[in-house]
Design brief:
The structure is a single chain. This protein is α+β, with helices and mostly antiparallel strands and about 260 residues long. Helices cover about 40% and strands about 25% of the residues. Helix 4 packs across helix 6 and helix 6 (about 185-195) crosses helix 7. It is globular. The relative contact order is 0.17.
Length: about 260
């Protein structure tokens, strides 16, 4: 891991123009359990796979509500995510107290991006070892953003980060055109199916290891829409959501199997 004295801090570039401490922080994100985000014209859904360090411990919290219109999911160091989420909560509260309105999603994402980027300019700091998917609704509609340890942020239609996230990204890319017109339940179903794709064959999604966060708006396009506040589904509340998503997967699998048998007869 030692690379010729260029990885001792987060402010020194290597001759190839790389900052190795940021790359190490990105590796911490890849080691975290997978989380998936999807955005439609009316809703944003965050889906996360939870881990427990051992059989005697509880499952780690992966989705955090920031405000009534905003939430995030994480992959990487949960302690770093807690620091960033607390900062976001303070900024959201300050916006309400100062301007009397919820903070725009893009603005708060830019603020945590700036905070992370400052760590690459100070010798005594280190990059945050966590990646975030931030989903929320503001006056311009639903938004999903990805935050990286380098401080880079970008708006996404769908995204997956964490260990084995490539499997989930493949599912998202395959169904990308469907997401824009999806309602709340359909978007949750797609999120859980994408999450399932990232699991090892000997693992299954359960009410203990999966959680979902949803925020959106209701009402017809062109009219004043009503905010559906951020809601976290956890524990037994996950039962009906998992049942709906996994039943659809089984039905598709059976249909494909019948189609194959008809072709070979």
């Amino acid at each position: 891991m030692f690379r010729n004295n260029y990885d001792n801090d987060a402010i020194t570039f290597s001759p190839q123009g790389r900052i190795f401490q940021i790359e190490y922080a990105s590796e911490a994100v890849k080691q975290g359990s997978v989380t998936v985000g999807l955005c439609s014209k009316t809703h944003v859904v965050l889906v996360a796979l939870k881990r427990n360090a051992e059989d005697l411990s509880s499952y780690q919290k992966k989705i955090i509500g920031v405000d009534t219109h905003l939430g995030l999911s994480l992959a990487g160091l949960a302690s770093d995510a807690r620091v960033l989420s607390n900062f976001m909560k303070r900024q959201a509260l300050a916006s309400k107290m100062t301007y009397g309105r919820p903070i725009p999603v893009e603005r708060i994402v830019d603020q945590i991006g700036d905070r992370a980027q400052e760590n690459t300019q100070n010798y005594s700091n280190r990059p945050y070892g966590v990646g975030l998917l931030v989903g929320g609704v503001d006056a311009t509609g639903p938004h999903l953003f990805e935050f990286q340890p380098s401080g880079m942020t970008q708006e996404m239609v769908a995204c997956a980060i964490g260990a084995r996230s490539q499997m989930a990204r493949t599912y998202l890319e395959r169904n990308l055109e469907k997401f824009a017109g999806c309602g709340r339940e359909e978007l949750v179903t797609h999120g859980l199916r994408a999450l399932k794709e990232s699991l090892n064959q000997d693992k299954e999604l359960t009410v203990e290891n999966a959680s979902v966060g949803v925020v959106g708006v209701s009402g017809k396009e062109g009219e004043k829409r009503k905010l559906e506040g951020f809601r976290l589904y956890d524990g037994e509340e996950m039962g009906p959501l998992l049942e709906r998503a996994l039943e659809g997967t089984k039905a598709e699998g059976e249909g494909e199997g019948q189609g194959e048998s008809m072709d070979t007869s």
